[in-house]
Design a protein that fits this description.
It is built from 9 helices and 10 strands. Bound molecules: adenosine-5'-diphosphate and magnesium ion.
């Protein structure tokens, strides 16, 4: 369902992504691990065109784009196919939890407002925030804000949810409740790509783990393989430190 081929990204002279190729099947849970500064965030951001790739082709569901030859409309269509969960939540501070979750339905998908609000409510109930519908982000804990962030991504009707270190900014006490929501989504076979340092989550939940270093995919495979029998020296070194 997702196909990325020959994706590269340069910031000036700095090559951050170098010929990235991978595929993701519908319902698959892919976890990306690797040292910081390796290009993991840039890769996710390119998938959503938050960053413009330098070269390469990205297909997500019905949307397809070639970095060097496309129309503006291709970007709009590609963006509709994924939603992003940010490390720092990136909620609208002046909107309630309910409004944050309904926003993309109203603006991107042109869903009638009442229907969008009702859908948003259902999703917030599902992530355990039934009591917080009309509350603003500043009145929520980090864990609650991130659950709103995930609810917002769930509301968007794209094919895949992209998570960029969704628990890294959280106080330790809030990490588990956020991981629990992600596990629930995985259980429901929501296609997701998750950049994380939570190795236990990767072991338990991932269908496939991708190890990235220095702008390359060094190795990928089932969690069992990556964590207990990595083939590449660099993967071995990283996994040894991370576990
Ligand atoms: P990771 O998420 O694996 O830590 P990033 O994708 O954030 O890595 O960053 C990869 C490299 O790209 C780093 O060297 C970083 O400094 C650089 N980089 C990221 N974003 C920008 C940007 N907007 N402008 C210039 N360099 C950037
Ligand atoms: Mg990052």
């Amino acid at each position: 369902m997702i196909n990325v081929s020959q994706l590269s990204k340069k910031f000036g002279d700095l090559a951050v992504l170098k010929e990235i190729n991978f595929e993701v099947a519908k319902g698959e849970i892919v976890v990306i691990i690797g040292p910081s500064g390796t290009g993991k965030s840039t890769l996710l951001r390119c998938l959503n065109y938050l960053e413009t790739p330098t070269t390469g082709k990205i297909t997500i569901g019905p949307a397809s784009i070639d970095a060097v030859d496309h129309k503006a409309k291709d970007i709009t269509e590609l963006r509709k196919q994924s939603s992003f969960v940010f490390q720092n939540y990136s909620l609208f501070a002046n909107k309630t939890a309910l409004q944050n979750v309904a926003e993309s339905l109203i603006t991107v998908w042109k869903t009638p407002k009442q229907e969008a609000l009702s859908t948003a409510e259902t999703i917030l109930v599902k992530v355990g925030l039934a009591e917080k519908l009309d509350v603003y982000p500043s009145q929520l804990s980090g864990g609650q804000q991130q659950r709103v962030g995930i609810a917002r991504a769930m509301a968007a009707k794209g094919e895949v949810i992209l998570f960029d270190e969704p628990t890294s900014a959280l106080d330790p006490e809030w990490v588990d409740e956020v991981l629990a929501v992600m596990k629930q989504l995985a259980f429901e076979k929501q296609t997701m790509i998750v950049v994380t340092h939570e190795m236990q989550f990767a072991k338990e939940v991932a269908d496939r783990v991708i190890f990235m270093e220095d702008g390359y995919i060094v190795e990928q495979g089932a969690p069992q393989q990556i964590f207990t029998n990595p083939q590449h020296k660099r993967t071995q070194a990283f996994v040894k430190r991370a576990l």
